[in-house]
Amino acid sequence: MPICAYCRPFGDPESVSDIEIEQDVDRPYVYVARRNSTKGFDVIDISDPENAFVLTQWRIEDEDLHQGGAMDGRYFQHEDRTYYVQSVQFRQGGPNADVGAIVFDVTDIGETGVVEEVGRIRQPNNPGGFHNIFMYRHSNGKPLLFATSGSYAKVFDMALFLEGAQTEVAARLDDADRALVGRVPLAETPNAWSSGYHDFYVAYHPESGEDRFYGGGGSGYYVFDVSDLANPAVRATILDVPGVSWGHTFTPSPDGRYAVAESEFQYQPLRIFDLQPALDGEVENIDYPVGAWHADWETVAHNHEVRWPFLFVSGYETGLSVVSLEDPTAPRTIAYYDTYDGPHNDRAARREGSPYTWGVYNGAWGVDVRNADGLIVVSDMTTGFWALKLEGFDGWNGEDYGVPNISSAQPWGDR
Amino acid sequence: MHDPHRSLRAWSLLLLLLCGSSASTSLAQTLAQGEGTRNIRVLDHLETPAPSRSIHLAASGTFYVLGDDQSLRSLSVEGTQVTSTVRTIPAQIDASRRVVTTVTRADGEHVFVAAERDALPVLWHQPPSGRARWINLPQSTQSVFAYHHTQAGALLLLGTDDGVYLYDVDALVATTKPEPRDLLEAPPTMRGPRGVVDVYAQYDEARGEDRLYTTGPEEAVIYDISDLSAISRIGGIRSAAIQTAPFIRPTSDGDYVLASGGYRMAPLRIFDMRPVWDGSLSEARTATGAWIPSPYGDVRRFTVRWPYVLMAGLHDGFFVVNMRRPSEPFVAGAFQTYAGDRPALADRARDLEGAFDVAFRNDDGAIVVTDPTAGIFVLRMEDLRMWDGRRWGTSPMNEVQRWDAPPATY
Questions:
Q1: What distance in Å separates the CA atoms of residue A212 and residue A235, rounded to the nearest whole number?
Q2: C or N terminus of chain B, fewer CB within 10 Å?
Q3: How far apart are alpha carbons A345 and A362 in whole angstroms?
Q4: Quick one: how far is CA B121 from the chain centroid?
Q5: How far apart are alpha carbons A329 and B327 in whole angstroms?
Q6: What chain B residue is nearest to A296 in terms of C-alpha separation?
Q7: What is the mean pLDDT of residues B164-189?
Q8: What are the chain A neighbours of B264 within 8 Å (beta carbons)?
């Protein structure tokens, strides 16, 4: 299936990180996070995708004093305003090392081209920022920010944050946690590779009526019921999987039955797990996938978006791949576009003694999909912003495919 | 273009018509089956009543093959003539493990097989003449390797849950109830239900050391065992995405170590150990190169005749890969032993179908490959009719031991 693509190159190589597209076609904005040589985010106007342009840019103050940059970004809507949350990671020794996320009011960006900073979420007890975040409209109606921090996925009530109010949890803590309403720990993991989470996804599970958290980290993947944020409960673990030392990105199917899991080491495929045996209580832990997929066995995928049965993969050096999961045991590539034309498996980028396979971490970092019309956006660390269209994919609604209409796109406007 | 394989098939079909023997039928079927063939000639194919798995090549040139039916088959390959004898060992043997080895002493070839008898770990010992005997072992054994130590002579190394037991073969043979001379305890991460799953020793010419290579949960550890009274850890490999490497072997010169991943879609990885040997690093964390027969393939067992690595690639068959440039390996020979379909990933019971184990004889290039679904293949690669490391500009060290002289004198 052919893809047409438009590329908006940015600045220095490896200065682009994650990407987020607003779902409302009347708000045609894409947020691209920037790091290393420039630290902040760019807002792309895609009202005409083939002529996308940078509407505005935001950069951290005293940029040169900061090391690190912006990582993951998510938008949300609350009381008729639209906000963009940018996660940041700045190294200690410089300013803002305790900042995890910066919140912006972007409601009027189309008219004014201005993003207004609303506030910063700081975690002085866990410096190093938030590597990944996820905005979720909880079944209680609240806009919740899930963020990687220390040994937890921390949960912030963004309505409280915006109001400057404090949670009852925060009454015992300092101002940094004034909007903290919950913390999701790692489930018990002997000899965990990492003590916390790397990435996660949160979605409503219609069959059980639960809000479910899907986290990658530790030594694998974890599913929690987060309906009661004060008491997150383990629903399933995926540990001791051959080849999975550490969980990275983890996304379920809309019905919560299957999950796509990535482990960010060279040669690792994306794995498809059937969660049902654990969810049904037949097994305590799932330790083997039912399917797997490679774009190229010598590389590794990075992030992905699920629009079941389609899987959109930002595959680092292999660019964008679109995979059919119609048969989860036999995923197949149905389209691809190579956004990265640099050297693969760059031996110069390797770091001796590091367990991470740095030589392959370049190319397509993030991907997002606009459900209304099927527009695909990709952030490539080196080649920049891409807008793509898959022929025959003109939008997504889960119900058209016999699954719940659940994806990373949140129903902010629904009551 | 002349196709040597077509000529061979024609002769085989003629042979089939003339003789109509089951052996010829097997050969014809083999050739028909070996459509995925490159540069490999079939000398013989033996169908076995039970799946054949682990192979050991003795210094005498005899290939020993373990079968799931507690069989120990010895193969004699003389030119293109292959003969085999079979005996059954009355014990429980995990034929999927490398638990058979041999030592050649003045009186001849001694065969050892680690097994269990009445749920107790034992070592079956068949001397050159006389009856076999049973030796009690302290622990169940996952891997056995006989090594000619530069100073201590013949050692038997057993990989177990506790670590590596070292036995003097002299004492093993002569003593009624031999005790190990030492236990090299596994590091805490390796101890437990899986323990040391592979054990191998090789003399490192450049560094003048007897080295022991072990692998188990979480890591591979390499020891200097030159002085058996002062064994020291000299390095290791701890790679993400390898929980337990089932098989590990160094290159002839010890500069690189190859390790399999132990699961489907895991390539065979090669690690550059030179920064570890020179003290820059304490352990290797990422591979410098890798190879897999197909994106959804698997390699568990292999043998190194540098720059060649002969691999048993399970569902993809047997391969000879040139890894002189570790980051750019290429296939020099291939033979498909497996006629079945590639099973679904979740069908773990079928993970180990296809080309299972491989052994290579240096003198004449005879290759034996076992395939539990198809039997035993005796092969030869057209341009690998012998191997001597010196002719490749490297050390002659490999897993086949010479018992007439210590390795430092080669």
A1: 9
A2: N
A3: 9
A4: 22
A5: 31
A6: B295
A7: 93
A8: 292
- Looking up tokens 């940029």 gives A63
- Count CA atoms closer than 13 A to B390's CA, side-chain side: 1
Amino acid identity at B79: G
Cα(A45)–Cα(A27) distance, integer angstroms: 9
B366: how many CB neighbours lie within 10 A of its CB? 24
Q: Which helix (H) or strand (E) holds B255?
A: none
Please answer yes or no on whether A355 and B265 come within 8 Å at the CB atom.
no
pLDDT for A159 equals: 94
Per residue in A220-274, pLDDT tens? 999 999 999 999 999 999 999 999 999 999 999 999 999 999 999 999 999 999 9
Give the pair of three-digit tokens for residue A32: 């691209």
Q: Check A242 against B263: CB less than 8 A apart.
A: yes
Task: Give the closest residue to A190 by CA, choosing from A102, A285, A280, A119.
Answer: A285
Tens of pLDDT, residue by residue over B219-266, are 999 999 999 999 999 999 999 899 889 999 999 999 999 999 999 999
A109 contacts A56 by C-beta, under 8 angstroms = yes
Closest Cβ–Cβ partner in B263, B286, B296 for A350: B286
Q: Which two tokens stand for residue B27?
A: 């050969």
β-pair partners for A3: A390
Q: Which long-range contacts (CB under 8 A, 24 or more apart) does A356-359 make?
A: A356/A264, A356/A265, A356/B240, A356/B286, A357/A265, A357/A266, A357/A300, A357/B240, A357/B286, A359/A266
In this structure, are strands B283-284 and B232-237 parallel, antiparallel, or unpaired? parallel
Contact A94, A88 (CB under 8 A): no
Helix or strand holding residue A257 (H, E): none
Interchain CB contact of B238 with A (< 8 Å): yes
Asked whether residue B46 carries a pLDDT value surpassing 90, the answer given is yes
Q: What is the model's pTM? A: 0.92
Model pLDDT for residues A141-184, shown as the tens digit of each residue: 999 999 999 999 999 999 999 988 666 555 445 566 778 899 99
Tell me the helix, strand and coil percentages in chain B, rounded to 5. Answer: 10, 45, 45
User: How far out from the chain centre does Cα A2 lie?
Assistant: 26
Quick one: which H or E segment has residue B319? strand B318-322
* Chain A residues closer than 8 Å to B346 by CB: 288-291, 329
Q: Report whether B91 contacts B102 (CB < 8 A).
A: no
Average pLDDT along chain B:
91
Judge whether A116 and A145 are in contact, CB under 8 Å.
no
Which of B286, B316, B328 would you mutate first to test chain A, the one with the most A CBs within 10 A? B286
Under a CB-based contact definition with an 8 Å cutoff, are residues A267 and A411 in contact?
no
Which residues sit opposite A293 in a β-bridge? Answer: A270
Burial B231-246 (b: 16+ CB within 10 A, else e): beebbbbbbbbbbbbb
- Stretch A328-339: mean pLDDT: 96
CB A329 to CB B275 under 8 A? no
What pLDDT, on a 0 to 100 scale, did the predictor assign at position A369?
98
Tokens of A82: 């639209």
CB contact under 8 A, B296 and A294: yes
Report the distance separating Cα B391 and Cα B385, nearest Å. 13
Closest to B222 in 3D by CA, of B193, B251, B243: B251
DSSP label of B267: P
Residue-wise pLDDT for B265-311, tens only, equals: 999 999 999 999 999 999 999 999 999 999 999 999 999 999 999 99
DSSP for B22-72, please give it: HHHHHHHHHHHHTTS-BSEEEEEEE--SS-EEEEEE-TTS-EEEEETTSEE
A&B contacts, CB < 8 Å:
85
Question: For chain B, what percent of residues have pLDDT higher than 90?
Answer: 85
Number of C-beta neighbours around residue A322 at 10 A: 22
Closest partner residue to A245 (CB to CB) among B240, B275, B286 is B240
